[in-house]
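ok trying again, last paste got cut off:
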Amino acid sequence: MTIAELHKIPLQALPKDVFSLPADAFVDAWAAAFNLAETDLSADERHDLAQAIRNGTNRMKVIDALRSAAPETTGKIGDFSAQVIRRPADQFALIESFARFAPDSDVAFLRYSFSKILGREPSDKERLAFEFDLRRGTTTREEVIKMIVGIARRDGRVSLWDTLAETGEAQAMQDDSSAARTMPAGLSYDLNGQETLIFVREVPGSGWMIGPDLLRQPVNVVDNGWKVSSGWLLVGPKRGFQAGPWRIQIDLVQELNAKLAIQLVANSGLDILQEVTIAGSFTGNLSTEIRAEHRFVELRVKVIDTGSETSWVRLRDISMVREVQS
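nice, full thing came through this time. structure:
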């Protein structure tokens, strides 16, 4: 988006000095301008976008990310450059982003990593053990980050790590359940020689197959479909996909005036890989290209508010297939 394009968007009143506001106030001001409620943009997502600004992300890119979540957004916004190096630090830990923090202070590094991944300070014993091993050189910062992610997972938090490495380190991730490139059981398998990721698929006579590690609305079955409310319907899984061309397969039935927004994003929503709004029933494929720098990829399915308190949709198939390149 450019400054000129902002004038094409109907907005609520914005402060005249909006681009001079601190990061949090800037995000809140634009969220209000796009009529984003808490169901459209959570507090954690607002924090991520504000942190991205502090880490150097162009504010216009943040406006694009906010606009994409707006209820009024119906068209594709355009191409987004990758923000993997500057993605917000959170429980989805990019090794290189954490390891480079405070290179001269292991204590500051530990406090920062625990705060972002676990949401707390390290205990005295945790700090003492990690600092001692780092000082002796018996462990590395990269290994410490993985261990902190492991602590988060044992505490019941959703946490994963990834790396920019393409060889060696990446190969070692395959058997580590805390690594973002290890797909959870049941989500990734081969179908006719192609890698297929099932998000939702109707199984005749049995119900629905729903992929693990997905946030979703409760399944309320009515008339062989789901009774749903406006807002996010499915979100996930924030994993590392194989680079290359992919197809998003969609087969759904809904009322003629009902709308679903389908969005494929990476790096906390700063990179939008595919986006479309579906009105009424639909079956077809969306093509997208996943690059090596696209980390923590997630598919978002959103029920657009059309004035009805609840909507009905029958999701027969939402999946992704990696295209075999000849």
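cool. Residues 43 and 241 are 27 Å apart (CA to CA). The first strand starts at residue 92 and ends at 94.
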